[in-house]
């Protein structure tokens, strides 16, 4: 059964994904990404302190809609994609906690 994954996407990568120039994601695989799953990206900016690996659910990311900051992910710019291929990095002898997955825009 396919899942929908709600993920933050930093503003610095947003346009590359939106235009189709970046067609993959590198993520830790604690969600169990599978071919056919849907990924919904929420546009966000780095928190002023510069942390990207810590998120407390309230203050560590600023979400963007039309280049204006908003308070919640629900208000942020979003894009939806389908996962077209999943490559576990363990298959390459790298780190088994990460995967690279291909994404295709849902029209």
Question: Nutshell version of this structure?
Answer:
By secondary structure, the protein is mostly beta strands. The chain is 7% helix and 45% strand.
User: Would you report the number of β strands?
Assistant: 7
Broad structural category: mainly beta
Sequence stretches where pLDDT stays below 50 over 5 or more residues: 51-57
**In what range is the share of β-strand residues?**
35-45%
Shape: globular
One letter per element, helices H and strands E, the order comes to EHEEEEEE
From the alpha-carbon coordinates, what is the Rg to the nearest angstrom?
A: 14 Å
Multimeric organization:
single chain
Distance between the termini: 21 Å
User: Sheet bearing the most strands, described?
Assistant: 7 strands, mixed
Q: Helical region count? A: 1
Mean model confidence by pLDDT: 85
Q: Could you estimate the helical fraction of the residues in percent?
A: under 10%
